[in-house]
Amino acid sequence: MTNLLRAVDATPTGQRRPVDFERGLLVGSRCLDCAWLSWPPRAGCPLCHGVRVEPAALPTQGVLYSWTRVWVPVEGITPPYLLGLVRLAGVRVFGHIRDLPEDATVPTPVQLRVAESSAPPFWFVPGES
Fold first, then answer.
1. The ChsH2 rubredoxin-like zinc ribbon domain covers which part of the protein (predicted)?
2. How far is the C-alpha of 66 from the C-alpha of 86, rounded, in Å?
3. 79 and 44 share a domain?
4. Do 52 and 66 fall into the same domain?
5. Which spans in 2-127 are helix H?
6. Residue pLDDT, tens place only, 52-70
């Protein structure tokens, strides 16, 4: 059976939860063949195309490398809000940034926050160096 067919038979995307609310962290996938780490969790490895992947918890501390202020409203989120690119253990996560000082520079450490009853369900706040 080809890797593509194995990936099609894998757990559906909607059942691979990218946020673990009980533990307060993001969950990606790690390839058991090449150790590539992905987020959100995937059915197959984007690097080696293997399908032997397992859930992998990402760290809660990362580094913000870029951010932008958004003025376009989306349901449940009032503008302006910040979106940023955060690196967690080598994985790039695009998410909301809260409480960033006006004079913030990048790169800067950030900390993950999650809340099941929130929109969005996860975001990053400034962290300690």
1. 26-50
2. 8
3. no
4. no
5. 3-8
6. 899 999 999 999 999 999 9
If asked whether residues 49 and 72 sit together in one domain, one would say no
pLDDT of res. 119: 84
* Domain hosting residue 42, numbered range: 3-57
- The per-residue pLDDT for 43 is 86
Which residues of the chain are under the pLDDT cut of 70?
1-16, 129
Distance CA 88, CA 111 (A): 10
pLDDT of 36: 94
Question: Using alpha carbons only, what angle is made at residue 28 by residues 82 and 10, rounded to the nearest 5 degrees?
Answer: 130
Where do the DSSP E strands lie in the chain? 19-20, 25-31, 37-38, 53-57, 61-70, 81-88, 91-97, 108-114, 122-126
Instruction: Verify that 90 and 120 share a domain, yes or no.
Output: yes
71: tokens are 């003025």
Q: What is the pTM of this model?
A: 0.86
Residue 89 is predicted with a pLDDT of 87
Q: Which residues contact 108 (CB under 8 A, 6 or more apart)?
A: 63, 64, 126
